[in-house]
Amino acid sequence: MNCDAMGLLDRITFRKQGAEPPEALDLTERGEIRIVWPGGQEVVVPALDMRDACPCAGCVEEGTGRKLLDRATLPAGVRVKGIEPVGNYAVKFQWSDGHDTGIYSWSYLRDVAPPRS
Questions:
Q1: CA 73 to chain CA mean position, Å
Q2: Chain centroid, CA 44 distance in Å
Q3: CB atoms within 10 A of CB 71
Q4: Are 51 and 78 spatial neighbours (Cβ–Cβ below 8 Å)?
Q5: Which pLDDT tens digit goes with each residue over 24-68?
Q6: What CA–CA distance (Å, rounded) separates 14 from 101?
């Protein structure tokens, strides 16, 4: 998927279900993840930080929530290669290190990149 052509949220529609989705979610020119929450609060998250926050079972122990991923093992230049919607409640990132199993729900994104008041 080409992340440059059009914003992800321009291609999908949402039904209210659980946490409210962001108004926009895309990449900056520097490869950071830009999230605009309802009301216009914008948060920019470095790709390395978002990759480090991956909630998948390979990165976080399911039973305890203990982090398994060691940030030191991630390439410093890790970047997002693609973003795809997961139903009406989340997104999934394809990472340059080959990882693509994390599902970032709107609620989880709010925890990782909360709107600033």
A1: 19
A2: 11
A3: 11
A4: yes
A5: 999 999 999 999 999 999 999 999 999 999 999 999 999 999 999
A6: 22
How would you classify residue 83: left for phi > 0, otherwise alpha for psi between -120 and 50, otherwise beta?
Answer: beta
Would you place residue 7 in the very low, low, confident or very high pLDDT band (cuts 50, 70, 90)?
Answer: low
* C-alpha dihedral sign at 29, 94, 99, 92: positive
Round to whole Å and give the CA distance between 23 and 42. 10
Confidence (pTM): 0.82
d(CA 76, CA 2): 22
CB contact at 8 A, 44 and 33: yes
Block residue for tokens 């950071």: 32
Using only C-alpha atoms, the chain has a radius of gyration, in whole angstroms, of 14
